[in-house]
Each structure stands twice: as structure tokens, then as C-alpha cells.
Amino acid sequence: MDEADCWNARCDVNQGLTLVLFFLSCIATFSTGQAAAPVQSSPARVLAKGSFPVKVTKTLDSSKLKVGDAVEVETAGSFKLPGGTLVPKGSKLMGHVTAAKARSKGDSASELTVSFDKLSITSGKLLSIKGTVQAVFPPAEEAEPQMAGKASGAAGGGYTGPTVGTVTDDKSGSNMEASGGDPSVNPNSAGVQGIHNLNLEDGMLTSPGKNVKLGVGVRMIVRVDVLG
């Protein structure tokens, strides 16, 4: 083989190697692009929605809480979800703080907002929910006598029966069964009932005082979507 033939052979080898490297680079780029593609999850379905009463078991104070802090309250009555699942009285409703502020110089009010995302049901199973505070009442022992049997709010009138919650199936609209609640707390109520210097709008509690403080025993109506 003369010098020209050797040169041509080396050129063919180099071209072949170049093509192989090119194809390998394309394959690597394609694989990387596939791995980097975001995984899209389908949104959670709303299985049921409605309102039920809960009770504060640990003081909530906007001057001591911060965004992200865990919050836990308990159901004030027992009820069954539309599918028949029992939620006993005292079940835990868990969430977190989404806004907390003590009033400081220049502020018009202190603030506290809580979002609920888990409900403990039978056998320790957790149900995914999306819940906000709909109404607030003082502890039962502090409630004014006239409130018994006559709790009212922007979303409903006087109390007319023993129902302590109104969770309904999102498809059939059938009501849950409920029992064992405080008849002075109307699940259709909205806003703040019987507590001075406290306001509630779109789930946010505000006060002209130095902090928003909900002591042990304070009762709330929580509006929820049950997710599945």
C-alpha cells in the first residue's frame, strides 16, 4: 500500500469515527430530553364538599405562629361521609398556617389564616381535603345564652335542627349523617359570632388588637372539599 492509499484509509476511519460519535451524541441528547420532560399529574377530584364544626385544642396566636407551622383541631361531632365512612367526634383535622402577623407600628390589624389539608378518619387513615375557616364561635361556656338555638351568619339564618354538618356527595348531592354536635353552632353560619374585635373574610382572621388569638375551646365551622 503506497502513501496515498494509507492516507485515504485513515480518512475513511476518521470519518467513520466521526459519524459514530455524532450518532451517540444524538442518542444521549434525546435520552436527556426525555428524562427532563416534566411529569404531569392529573388534578385531584372533589368527592364531597360541605361544612362541619371543629374545636381548637391548642391556642392559635398570630404573634407566635409563622407561615408553615402545623395546626391541629378536632371535630366537635361525629358524622358519616356520603360513602358511609365514619368520622368520630374528636377526629383530628390537620393543616398549616398560611399567614400570621402581629400588629406592629403602621399596621391596621393583625392577621391569621389557616388552611386544612388532612382529616384523620377510622383506623388512623388520613383523608386528603382542602379546608378553610368559615365561621368562628366562642367556647361553649362563654357563649351568650341567646346564641343557643340561634346562631346566624352571612351564609345562613337561625338554627332549625340538630344537624352539625352539611358534607354532601359531589355527584349525588346526598347529605351525610351527623350527630353529637353543639346545637348553638350552625354549620351554615359565616363570619365571627359572639367574639369582639375579631373579623373573618375569605378565610382570613383579622383583629385591630396586637394579635389574633383563638384560645382552647374556641369553635369553628370549617368548609371543606374532600379530595380523591
Could you characterize the architecture of this molecule?
The protein is an alpha+beta fold and 228 residues long. It has one domain (46-227). The protein is built from one helix and 15 strands. The strands form three sheets. A six-stranded antiparallel β-barrel has the order 1-3-6-7-8-15. A hairpin with an 8-residue loop joins strand 6 (92-101) and strand 7 (110-120). The longest helix has 34 residues, at 3-36. The radius of gyration is 29 Å and the shape is flat. The protein starts with a helix and ends with a strand. The relative contact order is 0.23.
Oligomerization state of this entry? Answer: single chain
Structural class: alpha+beta
Shape annotation:
flat
Distance from N terminus to C terminus (CA atoms, Å) equals 76 Å
* Low-pLDDT segments: 146-164, 172-178
Count all strands and give the number.
Answer: 15
Tally of structural domains: 1
Overall pLDDT: 77
Task: Output the radius of gyration.
Answer: 29 Å
What is the makeup of the main sheet? 6 strands, antiparallel, barrel
Roughly what fraction of the amino acids lie in strands? Answer: 35-45%
> What is the count of helical runs?
1
Order of helices and strands: HEEEEEEEEEEEEEEE
Approximately how much helix is present in the residues?
A: 10-25%
Strand order of the largest sheet: 1-3-6-7-8-15
